[in-house]
Design goal:
The chain is of the alpha+beta class. The chain has helices at 17-25, 47-53, 182-208, and strands at residues 6-11, 28-34, 41-46, 60-65, 68-79, 86-93, 99-109, 117-120, 124-130, 138-141, 150-152, 163-164, 171-176. It has a 6-stranded mixed beta barrel with strand order 1-3-2-6-5-4. The protein has a 4-stranded mixed sheet with strand order 10-7-9-12, with no helix packed on it.
C-alpha cells in the first residue's frame, strides 16, 4: 500500500544526459511525474530505496517532494540493458478511489494431467482496478487439467473491484501433450494393433472364400 511505500524526492533543475549521469553517480534517479492535467514534474529519487520498492510491479508510492505530498503510480522503469541499473522512472499522479489500467502478472499453480504440459500464451492481463488496491498477481490453477483444455482471459477469477480490460476471448494458456510423449506412443500402438487385427481378419476372410 502507498502508506507503506514512501519516498523523499527532490525537484530537478538540471537536464540532459550529462546531468542525469551526475545524478546517478550521486545515488539518485531522475524521474518525471505526469497526470491530472498538470505540467510534468521533474524530480529525483533516492536510488537504493527506489530500487527496493521497484522489486514489485505497479507500485503506488507517497512522494514527499520537498514538503509537498503526491500519490503516484510507477508506470515505466528504464534500465541499462547490460548492468540493469535503473536509469529513469515515469510516474503518474493518482487519487484514492481512482481507477487505473495496469498489466497484472498471471501466476500458474498446480500440475496438469500426467504426460501433459502447460503452454502459456499470456503472461499478463490488463485490468482496471483502484489505484490503491491493485492486485499483485492473478492466479490460474491447472491442477488435473487434461490435454486440449484451454483457459481464456474471461475464465480467470478477478479480485473484487477489478474488471478485465484484455479481450475475454484471449487465450491465457492451453494444456497439450508434447509430440513423442508416452501418450502419443500409446495412441500409435493402439492404431497399429487395430490395423494388425484388421489385416488378420481380412486374411481369414480371404482363406474362407
Amino acid at each position: 500500500m502507498a502508506d507503506e511505500n514512501k519516498l523523499s524526492a527532490g525537484k530537478r533543475t538540471s537536464f540532459g544526459k550529462g546531468a542525469a549521469r551526475k545524478l546517478r553517480a550521486a545515488g539518485h534517479i531522475p524521474a518525471v511525474i505526469y497526470g491530472h492535467g498538470g505540467e510534468p514534474q521533474h524530480v529525483t529519487l533516492p536510488a537504493h530505496e527506489t530500487a527496493l520498492l521497484l522489486r514489485k510491479s505497479n507500485v503506488v508510492v507517497t512522494l514527499d517532494i520537498e514538503g509537498s505530498k503526491e500519490l503516484v503510480l510507477v508506470k515505466d522503469v528504464q534500465k541499462d540493458p547490460v548492468r540493469q541499473i535503473i536509469e529513469h522512472v515515469d510516474l503518474i499522479v493518482v487519487r484514492k478511489g481512482e481507477k487505473v489500467t495496469v498489466d497484472i502478472a498471471v501466476h500458474v499453480e498446480g500440475d496438469s494431467f500426467p504426460g501433459t504440459i502447460v503452454v502459456v500464451d499470456h503472461n499478463t492481463l490488463s485490468v482496471e482496478a483502484e489505484a490503491t488496491h491493485i492486485p499483485s498477481s492473478l492466479t490460474v490453477s491447472v491442477e488435473g487439467l487434461t490435454d486440449g483444455t484451454q483457459i481464456h482471459a474471461g475464465d480467470v477469477t478477478l479480485p473484487a473491484g477489478t474488471t478485465l480490460v484484455t479481450d475475454a476471448g484471449a487465450l491465457v494458456l492451453a494444456i497439450t501433450t508434447p509430440a513423442g510423449s508416452s501418450a502419443d506412443d500409446d495412441a500409435v500402438d493402439a492404431l497399429a494393433a487395430a490395423a494388425s487385427e484388421a489385416s488378420a481378419a481380412a486374411a481369414e476372410a480371404a482363406e474362407a472364400e
